[in-house]
Amino acid sequence: MRTNFRPISEQNALTKLDALRSEFRSLIAEVYEYRAKACAVCLTPGACCLDEHFVNVHVSRLEAVAIGKSIADLPEQPQKAVRERTARTIEKYKLDEAIDTRTATYACPLFESGTGCLVHNSAKPLPCIMHACYSSEADLPPDELLDNAELAVNKLNDATYRRPTEHLPIPLAIAKLI
59: which strand partners? Predict the structure, then answer.
């Protein structure tokens, strides 16, 4: 499939992805997140990230590369722990056997107990940025915000890799890169 985008380098695309993610994070924080319970006061830190019946975040190839680079920047022990959690997650939830991963759920291997999300500041996926503990459904950011941001990420993927890229659950997407 041909696109109308000029090809861009992966490094340039990662820079653009970072800017897009920062803009999205700022919008969510300024307009919506003040209505949510702060993660710092959560009685069960990480419960949302580790809820194997809830987490179903898929990322594009470019997002997986950003996550892989962030993991590579970590000290060896956290890198090893992510690799082990990723392998266990894929095996436990049979993600590599799923016919439709859109319905598969899993505990996120990027969450480190006592630390939180290991890619929070560097490569946190858009759905994770948008997620927060809102007390009222009326306080939630509209889905269109995420849809529009993900469309922009898809365009970056198309311009970088010159073909549509498959979105995979985080563990499958990063297993190839770490």
Answer: 168
